[in-house]
Amino acid sequence: MSNTVDGHGPSRSWDVIVVGAGHAGSEAALAASRMGCRTLLLTMSLDASAQMSCNPAIGGTAKGHLVREIDALGGEMGRTTDRAAIQVKTLNASRGPAVRSTRAQCDRARDRAAMKQTVEAEPGLDVRQGQAARLLTAGGRVVGVEDQLGVRDEARAVVVTAGTFLRGLIHVGPAQQRAGRAGEFAADDLSDALRALGLRLGRLKTGTSPRLRRSTIDYSALTEQWGDAEPRPFHWATTRLPLPQVACHVTYTTRQTHAIIRDNLDRSPLYSGVIDATGVRYCPSVEDKVVRFADRERHQVILEPDGLDTEEVYANGISTCLPVDVQERMVRSIPGLARAEIMRPGYAIEYHFVPPTQMRPTLECRDVPGLWLAGQVNGTTGYEEAAALGLWAGINAACAVQGRAPFLPDRSECYLAVLVDDLVTRGTVEPYRMFTSRAEYRLVLREDNADVRLVAHGHRLGLASEERRAAVETEIERLRARRRDGASLFQLLCRPETRYGDLCAGDPEGIDEPEIVRQVEIAVKYDGYIRRMREDIARFKASEGVRPPDALDYAAVPGLSTEARQRLAEVRPRSLGQASRVPGITLAALSILAVWTRKLEATPR
Amino acid sequence: MAIATPPGVGALGVVRLSGPDAIPLTAALVKSPAAIDAQPSHTARRVRILDPGTGAPIDDALCTIMRAPRSYTGDDVVERSCHGGAALLAMVVERVCRAGARLAAPGEFTRRAFLNGRIDLARAEAGALLINARTERAVSLAARALEGELGARLGGLREALLDLVAGLEVSLDFPDDGVGVDVDDARAHTEALVRDVEALRAAARRGRLVHDGITIALVGRPNAGKSSLLNALLGRARAIVAPTPGTTRDVVEGVVEIAGVPVRLLDTAGLGTPGDAIEAEGMKRSQAAVDESDLVIVVVDGRVARADADLERTLIGRRALVVRSKSDLGAHPDAEALGDAIAVSSMTGAGLPALRAAIAQEIAAIVASNDDEGQVAASLRQSEGLAKISRALATGAGALGVVPLEAVLIDLREALGATSELLGLDLGEAVLDRIFSTFCVGK
Questions:
Q1: Which residues of B sit within 8 Å Cβ distance of A?
Q2: DSSP summary character for residue A278
Q3: What is the mean pLDDT of residues B387-408?
Q4: Hey, what CATH topology would domain B155-443 get?
């Protein structure tokens, strides 16, 4: 193909190009190159690799689960988080193991530096600063990228992880600025390039809180919050967190704060109608909180140190796009912040995303082969969701290039699969965040068994935890066989009050390793429910295994309602199971599809 | 296409045709002053039905057109009300088939209506219940079902479950926000919901009884007067009555309506020592009839009454009424020992009103209420769904506080899912929606 038009010399050729080096892009690029693909990571700014845009924290309920799964599959997020963690907590510690998750407050600069270092040091991965402006196509396939300077690169797979940068527009009060993040260019050309390929775009918004100067905060009357005394790292090989741990502080908005906000709502672009995009209800702006929950007297604000070497403090809980003068007054009405200076104002950002029902489960665009989309551009919110999607797309792009079977675990195996399946099957109209309640099999999808679950896939992709899983299974079998007081040790452990530690005290064959002890305890306590879950999963897998033919013309299937036809044609489910999850598909439509699929299978061609 | 009216002869017979070609197809078979292709929807026009081959007239009929999507099935529907002669209708149907239509399978119009989203499953089932109702009372229950009565009660249950599940889930996914329902409150709520569902199940059971009716077996010694009583209750001669004991060898049935409920009366062969193999078989069938009945009427010959151990054994644990028959022939002095037996004469009719009243009282007890608010018409599918919901909720209530919350939520979500399925509603993001509209969470 012609490549001398702009005089940058012949275009270079790659296996995989990743556009965007945020959380999604970094994971995608690392995965592809570690799987043996010649990979180029193209980023607008080499200084902003995996930059956290708002709250400098990784993990939390369900998000911590994603991070451990990423870690189990050889992704980076767990390791970089450990290297930058300055406060780590286990959430839901007193509840059942399925909902326990880890959250780490991070030093923002060190987190970014850690990822930058890893990405740049990765053999087989080239990194270059450049702004992707055009997507090159041939025969209906995406075959490369051209940047704003006219430099062209060809590839067999292009993964776009543009985050919030597609026609990104920042709002602070009346001011608007085209940007993908404060201080960074928007990706307007890339947005147009995607549209030109025939992809439908939607518009979403999110926001961030102001950052305050530490020395202007009066901490004396505020409650301190420390992390766990013995924090659990994310990465399996981390033995010790390298950074000193710090405290966060808690304060609250006051009636006066709310009054200031209410009096100035018309100056907030969120409420003046200027922003016409759907926001993240899981991260409500402080304007939202005050309006929707008007009778609440106060809302929590957590002051989080942005890093060890910086004066910046992130004021978590007052995400806003009010004008700067209002932000200042609002902040100063909060206890402890009477003299606080704002170093970076809060802002709202609206951006384009690509509705994910246009993607196959591998995250390749169904109608634009050769193009993968991953991260916030799929319509998600959160660094962990983005990293998960980037990893998934990177692995699958590599598999496609290498002619390997795609990486497609199902909903019963990992939160990653729940995330992807929800997006490509149900789509999303607002920024999607992962919750444990989204996973119907959450009892078996725990942080502590992430590597055990993903072992088979990890093997195929070059990771091994077979020894760990084998050790746990062996111990459970041993407990079933041993008896004490007329009941097997296994049965004894099923009574909620019994702890494995008590049972095996003095038992010479008891296992010491705390990790194994924990696994065994969990398995036996949940035994009855887990058994039910496994029956459900077996049924689920059966329906996932029934595949309608790829070229099925839904218009030709008799008896389907118009609505069912439209939705099925849009999503093109790969299985009856997936079809059942498409919104608006009734049991009746499903049974028609089942009968039709069987009929087509029986008909010789 | 199908004949929508019942088989047989009548003043009218309706032939119904549904499908995208219904109107052009009909146009080829009829003649009318204005072309029916242009006939406005939901109007009736007089047409002459012609034989397409010879052009000879077959009938003078009324043609009603209902255009998609506002028709029963959602496709174009044409109904021709012809004269109700059997041969005539057969001819009409045959001509329509030759023109390209296909005879509908049983229930196919309703199926199409359901698939096209014109009616939901519950209404389709209610329609079937209405068609099969045999008494006025069953009709009124089914009509309430058609109005969506069960759906309304289930809707309330679903809302309550959404609040409960949301209140518990929020504490798991937002542990820092300090919101959510506490476990003791949750248990109390769940137990209350179990009671609500059980009340609904009981109402559905009673509704089924009203719809399906109850069975009464008449038992007693040979020649005690059972067959005569059956005939008297039915108001016509049905069983064979003869003076020789042992005449009824089979179980003879009749259906009568009492207190708005269809009552199936089973006349059995007299219990006792069988004289031959045929009698033995008859007695075996009689025992089976007793086993399946909701009420047993013991018929004792008023002249020869004595305490009967065999009979008493049959009645252990069963609802029973005792009748002293042949009261016109006098009563044995010991007959008084039978306590609250009802004296009846099938010949003269004496005592029959008292017997019917006593049966009505028993029916009321079985159906548990004579007030229709106490019953609801539910299909088998709905009854099974309710049972599933009740089980899941009861397990959940017991597990709250004992087992980790995320495990209990499996039971509660099962109940929520079953409720939504009965209502034909997708759950989708309903729980998350409920969380975010109720609680201020998230940063």
A1: 112, 114-117, 121, 169, 172-177, 402-407, 409-410, 413, 421, 424, 426, 428, 431-432, 436, 440-443
A2: B
A3: 89
A4: Rossmann fold (3.40.50)
